[in-house]
Design a protein that fits this description.
The two termini are 38 Å apart. This protein folds into two domains: 64 residues; 58 residues, no CATH class. Helix content is 46%, strand content 24%. It is of the alpha+beta class. Strands 1-2-4-3 form a four-stranded mixed sheet, with no helix packed on it. The chain is built from three helices and four strands.
């Protein structure tokens, strides 16, 4: 494909500076042949980049989880910012971490489908609050 694009581009470049109606029509024809080839090339490059992105993401994900060889029972000390793609704050006392594709998260309105739900106590001034957080796998 690259060879065909280069060949047509050379022919296009050969006549592009000639200001004659005949050569403008020739360049227009070459341009019409080049356009779909460039579109196909961009589509293929995008496919390769997307596949590379996914494999890089999975590699980083595995690398981050490598030190945690046993069953994870608590989120304390866990590298949350490297693992989760989004965070939903339902209210002051309820947070959900999204694992995986963070596409349409508008349907996640509560913590009912979360796993590994934990509870932490925190203080604001002298008031004691309890924060519940969990993981949602999308």
């Amino acid at each position: 494909m690259r060879g065909k694009i280069d060949e047509l581009q050379q022919k296009f470049d050969k006549y592009k500076d000639i200001d004659d109606e005949f050569y403008r029509d020739i360049n227009k024809a070459y341009n019409e042949k080049l356009k779909p080839l460039y579109m196909k090339k961009l589509e293929l490059e995008n496919t390769v980049n997307t596949a590379t992105n996914i494999s890089d993401y999975l590699y980083q994900f595995k690398k981050t989880l490598a030190p945690y060889s046993s069953v994870i029972t608590t989120l304390e000390g866990f590298p949350l910012n490297k693992i989760f793609s989004r965070v939903i704050i339902h209210d002051r006392d309820h947070i959900t971490f999204i694992l995986g594709n963070a596409g349409d998260i508008s349907t996640i309105t509560s913590m009912e489908n979360d796993i590994l739900i934990q509870e932490e106590t925190y203080y604001i001034r002298k008031s004691r609050h309890r924060l519940k957080y969990g993981i949602y796998i999308n």
